[in-house]
């Protein structure tokens, strides 16, 4: 296992007075072991204990040929994996449980009375994962660099008469050509007025001359996600109304980024973007939080919202993506990923945020 990461989780457990925990999230298991295992309906559980007595309970359907640095406990489809897991647990101590563990396993474990009590242990590892180590930062930078290249190639291929859905297929090829392993989320290609729906389901609508297009895309590189949004115009300069809206969103993005440094609250970052849009008269049309954490998962734990008063720390990576959405008219969103540093932040995307007409 990746001992430095495991030790950080153990330190977090000790601060919470927790001596044992099971981790069942495939993303968190990958974070600690370097191995992706997608168990489907079967159970997988990484048991960690403050005494170092770590074990992994895993179905034989998922062979692991490399040494993960943890004792493997294998079970067959004809066996009950909870019986194997129960043997690992100290019944005299409280057990941390993963927040997303299926009830079919959780209820069975609770009914087995194998621990003194049960708590949600996920916040411990979630908070460790929020702060990227040096290896993760380099991968995230590389992932975003690929996303920049893909965005520019996408721009070069946008044509009147082609459908939103066509470009989802093209994006798959572009990511593969740049060394990514597919999407980090389903791309949003939203030609106007579809862009007024922040999570528009990409469909068969055709690009028309004079349209605006919201392009929200991301890929995976070495299992780490990228995410970026740009809004472009096709064929002709935007109207004054649309250009003004675009520049308000751009200013909100830049204002929020300008205040980011260690010690600033997530809520302050959200307010910086939101207040600028509100003061411009479009507050009711900015309908979502300003950003989300990102890493192994495109939506890691933590968000940039007005109710999150936690202070940001160096090593955190999250999105800054304000938007304005006018029904039956236009949607504009501009999104960058930022890496928090002691004295500021580093923007991981380099694609221009000026008005672009293709």
TrEMBL record:
Q: Which GO terms describe its molecular function?
A: aminopeptidase activity; metal ion binding
> What InterPro entries does the record tag this protein with?
Creatin/AminoP/Spt16_N, Creatinase/aminopeptidase-like, Creatinase_N, Pept_M24, Peptidase_M24B, Peptidase_M24B_aminopep-P_CS
Which keywords appear in this protein's UniProt record, sorted alphabetically? Aminopeptidase, Hydrolase, Metal-binding, Protease
Judging by the UniProt lineage, the source's domain of life is Bacteria
Instruction: Tell me which CDD domains the record gives.
Output: APP-like
The Creatinase N-terminal domain extends over 5-131
> Which parts of the sequence belong to the Peptidase M24 domain?
138-342
Q: Please state which protein family the record places this protein in.
A: Belongs to the peptidase M24B family.
The protein's name in its UniProt record:
Aminopeptidase P family protein
